Structures are given as structure tokens and as C-alpha cells.
Amino acid sequence: MSYVAISKVKYPPQFKQQIHDVALEMMDIAKGQPGFISIKFHQSHEISETMMYWEWQEKYHHEACLQSKQWDEIMDSSGRVLHSEGVELSIETYERIA
Q1: What average pLDDT does this structure show over 3-18?
Q2: 22-63 pLDDT, tens digit each
């Protein structure tokens, strides 16, 4: 079927634009990777949290993206924001069954 990763970032309100900028760069990287199907980017109305829904053909495509040179570069350049006090990143993965 397909492999789905749901990433969430909770953050203090002052980081909203920086988090959005990083997410948009991540989307561009994912779109150029083998096995990419789609990605959706959402902002919560209630709290300072974003959610990204990443869909891949197979689990190994997702893993390859996370190990790519482009991904390493974005993680290096965004590390200051993603490791700031109050910023929490989580990823849950699923295999689509229907």
C-alpha cells in the first residue's frame, strides 16, 4: 500500500514563522526523493503546533530521505530552531492498510 509518517512540532509562539520556514524547506526536499507520494502541512488553530503528513511508496523511501545529504543539510541549518527550549518534535509512522 504505502507508508505514512506524521510529524508534529510543538513550539513557543515566537518560533511559528521559523518552524513554518523549516517545514516548507523539508517539503521541497521530500518532493524530490524517490518513492515520494504526497505531503500535507497543517497548523493547529488551538495551540502552537504544526503537523505534517508524509506519504511514501515504501518505508525504505522515507528512511532514505532522512538519510539523504539534503536532509542532513536542512537538519544542520535548522538545528538551532528545532533544539530551542520549548520546541518538541515527534514522529509517528504507519503502514496504510486500506
Answers
A1: 97
A2: 999 999 999 999 999 999 999 999 999 999 999 999 999 999
CA-to-CA distance for 63 and 60, rounded, in angstroms?
5
**Average model confidence (pLDDT) for the chain?**
96
Residue 7 has a CB neighbour count (10 Å cut-off) of: 18
Cα(33)–Cα(43) distance, integer angstroms: 24
Strand pairing class (36-43; 2-10): unpaired
**Nearest partner of 43 among 71, 15, 85, 64, judged by Cα:** 15
Write down the number of H helices and E strands in the chain. 3, 4
CA distances from 68 to 4, 43, 59 (A): 18, 26, 14
Look up cell 521541497; give the residue.
Answer: 28
Query: Is the CB of residue 41 less than 8 Å from the CB of residue 27?
Result: yes
